[in-house]
């Protein structure tokens, strides 16, 4: 349905870490080059597999943060304190290390520029990652789809891609960005300071009558609230795509 | 907010590829209990059970369970009436 970039069979590939970007105190982007990569669509993810010296394997899924760029794939990983894989990726991984991955995976939570729909994006915490791939693709393609993004984060320092989002918000090229800080706000904060709720969605997201396509990504509880509120506000369930991270996110 | 542990069928996209040999999150299945038709990517997935459990987003019925074995994996189709695979 999504064209050639959705792969029908997958094998494990070996990728090399070529860059590491500290996004927030507990989130890091990992830039990989992956020989054999066939391209991907915004919203798709990879499966990443780590193998311990004793043969034990752990496998996790990570959203791709960037649009297609040859053999280059960037994932953005949030540290899950008691996790098996993310502490290694966030704290231990070094440039030059090799990782096993396969992908791209996903044909449901995907979007590509040129469809013309108004786009409503709602992100909780690291839920911004696949949505950022969509926004970056829209910018790269110089698309004209009107985009509204609501980002919810605990504090300003927890907003992933903070500078890039601030830049997008000031460019006035059809991408509107609203940030809400749920736990701690800077003294001069003029933005929102509560969890995403009905009033916020009613005021700041596209109305159901505009027939936007909505992508909601974040921790499970966040996604449940946002998606059900959008339905309450009259959005057709078919126009709401969700991706839940589970209880902790990342 | 109570702690909720489920994710979406999106997360099982890789596993579904292992089973079906193709991308399945944009394909649909019909619940054998309530008849709701949903995309695999929108089904409710529990990954912390012994095995991955997929439930109907409409009625919560267990549709399928995927269990990893030392030799590969096994899927039990508990309650899927049909699966439709579209090429366009």
Unreliable parts of chain B: none
What's the average pLDDT of chain B? 90
Structural domain tally of chain B: 1
CATH class of the largest domain in chain A: Alpha Beta
Which series of helices and strands of chain B comes N to C? EHEEEEEEE
Instruction: Kindly state the percentage of residues in helix of chain B.
Output: under 10%
> Which structural class do you get from the secondary structure elements of chain B?
mainly beta
* Topology, number of strands of chain B: 8
CATH H-tier superfamily of the largest domain in chain A: Nucleotide-binding domain of ferredoxin-NADP reductase (FNR) module
Description:
Chain A is an alpha/beta fold. The model of chain A has no long low-confidence stretch (mean pLDDT 92). The longest helix of chain A is centred in the middle third of the chain and has 13 residues. Helix content of chain A is 20%, strand content 32%. Chain B is mainly β. Chain B has one domain. In chain B, the strands form two sheets. In chain B, strands 1-4-5-6-7 form a five-stranded antiparallel beta sheet, with no helix packed on it. Chain B has a three-stranded antiparallel beta sheet with strand order 3-2-8, with no helix packed on it. In chain B, a hairpin with a 6-residue loop joins β5 and β6. The mean pLDDT of chain B is 90. Chains A and B meet through β6, α5 and β11 of A and β1 and α1 of B.
Offer a quick outline of the entry.
The complex is a heterodimer of chains A (250) and B (88). Chain A has 250 residues and is of the alpha/beta class. Chain A has helices at 86-92, 128-140, 162-171, 198-204, 220-232; strands spanning 13-24, 27-33, 45-51, 57-63, 72-78, 98-105, 119-124, 147-153, 175-181, 213-218, 240-244.
